[in-house]
Amino acid sequence: MENKTAKGIYGWKKWVIIAILSLLAGCINGFVGTGGGIVIVYMLLFLDSGGGDSTKNAFAKTLVAVIPMSFVAFLVYLNNGNVDTELMGRVFIPATLGGIVGACLMYKIDKKWLTMIFSSLVIYSGVTLITRAL
Amino acid sequence: MMDAIVSFIIAVIVGLGIGGGGFFVIYLTLCMNYGQIIAQGTNLLFFLVSGISALFIHIRRKSVFSPELLFIIATTLPATALGAHIADFTDPKIPTFFLGALLVISGIISGIRTVKAFIKEKNEKN
Questions:
Q1: CA A28/CA B79 separation, integer angstroms
Q2: Which of A97, B15, B48, B77 could form an S-S bond across to A103 if both were Cys, CB 3.0 to 4.6 Å?
Q3: Residues of chain A found within 8 Å of residue B47, distances taken between Cβ atoms
Q4: Cβ-contact B62, A60 below 8 angstroms
């Protein structure tokens, strides 16, 4: 039996929404090199709002979806000569350790204050990039 | 050394799932003067390294696979390849602007959600 969400979206409508937003997420992730996860996480939170899916589970699912997406985009960028593999050689170990530390902390800390700080930083960075592009 | 410290911090943010996906692009473009497209390509590899290590922790803790998720993955892949090809022959200012706009929107949404969570928590305590 199909799970009905709090928004009343179920059956084929749910799959159409997933298909459209997934295509959008893929295009964004390929075009900008990041950002597809934002679309997917809010889509999962919206669709699962009545199914008891926790925010943390939505983040974990998003990570699972974004990794194959990023891999495909990475292959295209690499093929076009747009990846600095030398830099990645230098940061491979800290990036691996950081990912593990962050994932472990996710289940242990209250992220509200951290999210507020990083939201401000993200907005500031976004404005800086827009200013730079104009 | 600076690269290693910054990479570790950004990878922690990626693992936490609070929107760290674009920080490495920002670091590379604004602090290291990389071109936008090569920063995006390097960020993808960075995300794969930090994201996969975080994924092992999440998979151990949660059952994350579902029919919806498999459908999402299958749908996003061709779109991603298309987006990545378009990025290669586009004026770099366009993805820069797009990323900036995306960050501002996600920052605002994330901020609003967090403020709502704060208010809800405060009301429950009272």
A1: 9
A2: B15
A3: 34, 66, 70
A4: yes
Q: How many CB atoms lie within 10 A of CB A58?
A: 22
Whether the CB-CB separation of A43 and B28 falls below 8 Å is answered with: no
- Give, for all 134 residues of chain A, the pLDDT tens digit: 445 454 556 677 888 988 999 999 999 988 988 888 888 888 887 776 544 456 667 777 888 888 899 999 999 999 988 888 888 888 888 888 888 888 788 777 776 777 777 788 788 878 888 888 78
Q: Which tokens hold the place of B37? A: 């497209």
Q: Which of A83, A100, A119 is the last residue of a domain?
A: A83
Distance CA A48, CA A32 (A): 27
| The total number of structural domains that make up chain A | 2
Q: What is the ipTM of this complex?
A: 0.82
Residue of B nearest to A115 (CA): B18
Task: Tell me which residue range forms the domain holding A129.
Answer: 84-134
Same domain membership, residue A63 and residue A99: no
Enumerate the residues of chain B whose CB falls inside 8 A of the CB of residue A52.
none
